[in-house]
Amino acid sequence: MTDTPAMSPTETYRANLAERRLTFQSCRACGQTWMPARSECPNCLSPEFEWCEAGGRATIVSWVVFHVAFDPRYEDRLPYNVALVDLEEGARMVTNIIDLPDGEDVIGRTVTLEFEHDLERELPRFRLAD
Amino acid sequence: MASRAVIAGIGQTAFGRLPGRTTESLNIEACRKALEDAAIEKDRVDGLLVKVPTSRVEMMYGQKLAEAMGMQPRFGGVFDQGGASNISMIGIAAMAIEAGQCEIALVSLADNPKTGSRAAYEKPWGDAADLGWSSVVAGYALIARRYLHEFPNAEELFRDIAIAARAHGAENPNAQLRKPLDTATYEAANWIVEPLRRDDCCLISDGAAAVVVMSEARAKELDVRAPVPVLGIGQGNSSSDVTLRADLTKTRADVSAATAFAMAGLEPRDMDCAQIYDCFTVTVAMTLEAYGFGSFDALHELGRAGGFGVSGDLPINTSGGLLSETGMPGMQLVLEGVRQMRGDSVNQVENARKCVVSNQGGIMHTHSTLILGQ
């Protein structure tokens, strides 16, 4: 996969998601990986990057449970969770955990990618692996 | 610095719901009162620094306020670090005075998210917005969850921080929320974004507060009634989006404090009280640790022993903080630091001679530290 100049990095990321591919950027100069999409490497500032597809395994860094919906689209989904996960390949992303057990500390647990068709797009969510 | 700066005057509006007032009007009231407190004529002021309101972000706000106050300041404008701006601007004013760029500066903050817009606090974040990722409180909840993972009984520390602030606010006639908090009420309150409960979260408030900054020599010359010396100033910026922060429970607050303590030639143990930015209780826990007031275990024990109260070992947020006095982002803490050093706080710490004040902004993106003393 290479960057298409006509598309912004965010547009490329979204287009890949639409094909149910979760991708992150990797710096051609220093090897740094990152999300969310941007046009320069935050480590060495190089604009030369490539897109890589995530294998789908990640580790939970932290998570929260919304009991108030600031976004009206989520009003009828309360309570819902938002989690932060580190992909096996290094980049970090915001996601939701499907079937998150109540009252358990899940920080450090392994999760696997599971796309869900929701809000008229393919959303990258994760599920506990063990 | 070769010549010390002082806070020569303080002023504030009422705190709470102030319908029908613009932020310019609130700033003007706070500045007028700060000038009255310092007994300084407006025409002597040649510096005006102001934090842009969260309720309505606009360009050239500093000039808009200067115009509304009939001023053409030599030195002035907006400096934006969110809630850390207040202390940073006091530092900038002190440096500008030292460098001969101005002589007497007003530093002011007004905001009105209570009657105006609170969209800045509730907005969805980037591409993850479709996953329900939104709001400032949720960012702090991510930090709090990680903190609870590292320190499983941190909830008791959060609770004791909230109880202390609310006890102090209850005694403060200017506080927006004058209702003391107890353990049962804290634990029974609903979650906002778990693991943060209602009483872990600051108020939403309209209001303003301002200070007058000048050199110590000028204050003496002008016979200012109660100048309070600025002993130390520092800042530190974590900058990264909270979701990308390598360690969610570490910020650059330690760098900010180290800079300020080094400038003052003082240490945390020299402080008689601390006004710590308490947008959320977890912020206070992390800031006290980063400042060197003790490990988590020491702070946890201090909280359990009532150490955060006015007569405790480490009195914090003695006017009620953001949790009880006003949710306004930070200048009220500076005003309370000044009152403690003057000896006229409603919750006066006996023989208080040194006070540290923290400000921070964003989701712990920015941090600034002020050390006041006598």
Describe this structure in words.
Chain A: It comes from Palleronia aestuarii. Chain A: This is OB-fold protein. Chain A: Residues 17-50 form the ChsH2 rubredoxin-like zinc ribbon domain. The complex is a heterodimer of chains A (130) and B (374). Chain A is mainly beta and 130 residues long. Chain A has a six-stranded mixed beta sheet, with no helix packed on it. Chain A has one helix at residues 9-18, and strands spanning 23-27, 33-34, 49-53, 57-66, 80-87, 92-95, 97-98, 110-118, 121-128. The longest helix of chain A is centred in the N-terminal third of the chain and has 10 residues, at 9-18. Chain B is α/β, with parallel strands linked by helices. Chain B has a domain at 5-116 and 204-221: Peroxisomal Thiolase, Chain A, domain 1 (3-Layer(aba) Sandwich), CATH 3.40.47. Chain B is built from 13 helices and eleven strands. Chain B has helices at residues 23-38, 61-68, 85-98, 119-122, 136-150, 154-171, 183-188, 216-221, 253-264, 281-291, 296-304, 321-324, 331-342, and strands spanning 5-12, 47-51, 75-78, 104-111, 191-194, 196-197, 207-215, 228-237, 273-275, 354-361, 366-373. The longest helix of chain B is centred in the middle third of the chain and has 18 residues, at 154-171. The model of chain B has no long low-confidence stretch (mean pLDDT 97). At the A-B interface, helix 1, strand 4, strand 5, strand 6 and strand 9 of A face helix 5 and strand 5 of B.
Compact description:
Chain A has 130 residues and is mainly beta.
Using the CA coordinates, give the radius of gyration of chain B: 19 Å
Going by helix content, strand content and strand pairing, the class of chain A is mainly beta
The largest sheet of chain B, given as strand count, sense and whether it forms a barrel, is: 9 strands, mixed
Secondary-structure element pattern of chain A, one letter each: HEEEEEEEEE
Q: Which parts of chain A are unreliable, with pLDDT below 50 for 5 consecutive residues or more?
A: none
Order of helices and strands of chain B: EHEHEHEHHHHEEEHEHEHHHHEE
Number of strands of chain B: 11
CATH class of the domain at 5-116 and 204-221 in chain B: Alpha Beta
Largest interface: A-B, 35 and 30 residues
Specify the helix fraction band of chain A.
Answer: under 10%
**Rough outline of chain B:** globular
Structural class by sheet pairing and helices of chain B: alpha/beta
CATH architecture verdict of the largest domain in chain A: Beta Barrel
As laid out across the biggest beta sheet of chain B, the strand order is: 3-2-4-7-1-8-11-10-9
Beta-strand percent range of chain B:
15-25%
CATH topology of the domain at 5-116 and 204-221 in chain B: Peroxisomal Thiolase, Chain A, domain 1
CATH architecture grouping of the domain at 5-116 and 204-221 in chain B: 3-Layer(aba) Sandwich
Euclidean distance between termini CA atoms of chain B: 17 Å
Number of H/I helices of chain B: 13
Low-confidence stretches of chain B: none
